[in-house]
Amino acid sequence: MSFHLDVEIKALLQGMGVAESEFSGGTLIVRSPLTGDVLAKVPEISSEKAIAAISSSSEAFNEWRKIPAPRRGELVRLLGEELRANKEALGRLVTLEVGKVPSEGLGEVQEMIDICDFAVGLSRQLYGLTIQSERPDHRLTEQWHPAGVVGIISAFNFPVAVWAWNAALALVCGNTVIWKPSEKTPLTAIATQALFLKAAARFGAEAPKALSTLLVGGREIGALLVEDQRVPVVSATGSTRMGRDVGERVARRFGRSILELGGNNASIVTPSADLDLTLRAVAFGAMGTAGQRCTTLRRLIVHSSVYETLIPKLVGVYNAIKVGNPVESDALVGPLIDQLSFEAMQSSLKAAREAGGTVHGGQRVNINGDASFYVRPALVEMPSQTGPVLEETFAPILYVMKYETLDEAISLQNSVVQGLSSSIFATDIREVELFLSAQGSDCGIANVNMGPSGAEIGGAFGGEKETGGGRESGSDAWKAYMRRQTNAVNYGRTLPLAQGVKFDV
Ligand code: UN1
């Protein structure tokens, strides 16, 4: 092998300020999907220590909420500086731990930097409202207060950006954060926490010790966050199965959850589409990140008049795309995260064949031996939207179907249980506007002339139906990390009651 992953990992982590004891001698074995090699053995936290960490975080909240929001923004600005200074190293670590191609590894860190910038500006806003009171000499307003400890449960595929979306907002809002990363990606989390601690040290003593806490461990550690009354907000990214469980348990104790769950994202290609642009967008949307984004394009709904032009070309792109180890080559498609993911992909392809689908690609490619799982992305022509097409398989499978009328296409796109992202390829304004109207896409994200993935941080990110309804990142997503308080003030000398009620004692 031309590179030594464990040696490089050690140098990267130490370069970002991580002590060796944090990634060696532990029980959580971390493998690189690039080669299957063991990268590190990370110590896991015990339940007792995790419960104590929740206590420390609640105490830290009592201090942090007193700091003015623009000053809290300064800490997030420093975090953004640390991320800028360490972009190459952290991006590389994302590539080694998750298998993302280098530009996507770096892009993930850029997304963290962007949300820090966004949150710094937000720290001087967090606006409330003034509302007209129905009573004389009264003032009615609404203001936003921090919620408390925010639990963040993140998935392997965006191992650090999703933490940053949540943490940057939560921190400027005056909350403390506790992070339970995916068991598959603790190293990028440990590095990110080290960078946070550097920023906090530069910020000074106003930053309480337990402002941001990292809990490396299994499911039972995540469950502690989900069950604990002292964690009023739980933000969880992952499968619908996980989210249904988290959502129910958090709701039972009247906590708030922000859920980012499965996607089964479709694009509609209309007769007016620019087919060259469509081809490139579909390639990135469906094969980028080896199909392992929640926003990955999974269903392509193509008008019958352009099907015969577009699909053979697309199959050509699928045949030509370079699959490989992105550290050793200029491959655009890296490995799947692990064997389970490979098996899930193969079983979906089998089900697709049984349902009458014609499969192009999808076979395993031997790049770095038996312990890594590289595949050729699969394009599957389906006679109808059935079987595996209705499910999210977290792998590069694109199901392609034909349609005749736009109403039929929109109805196909909407008739799955997931509702994250969607897009239309069209230059006819009527088609575009219908797709964006109330009768159009039912998803949280609806794009025009681009694929469904690769959202910018400035917009609210999230989806409807079994995607969970949460919104993170831009727009007014910050409100989910705060509690709203309505304030009515009587500055007169009488006591007029609302609704004209009389109660003279
Ligand atoms: C995810 O896959 O968990 O829109 C999030 C995108 C990225 C985020 C994806 N900005 O593809």
UniProtKB/TrEMBL annotation:
Enzyme Commission number, as recorded: 1.2.1.3
Gene Ontology MF term list: aldehyde dehydrogenase (NAD+) activity
Swiss-Prot/TrEMBL keywords: NAD, Oxidoreductase
Superkingdom: Bacteria
Active site: E260
Pfam families: Aldedh
Ranges for domain Aldehyde dehydrogenase: 27-486
InterPro entries referenced in this protein's UniProt entry, alphabetically: Ald_DH/histidinol_DH, Ald_DH_C, Ald_DH_CS_GLU, Ald_DH_N, Aldehyde_DH_dom, ALDH7A1-like
Family named by the database record: Belongs to the aldehyde dehydrogenase family.
Assembly and interaction partners: Homotetramer.
Protein name per Swiss-Prot or TrEMBL: aldehyde dehydrogenase (NAD(+))
Organism (species): Gluconobacter wancherniae NBRC 103581
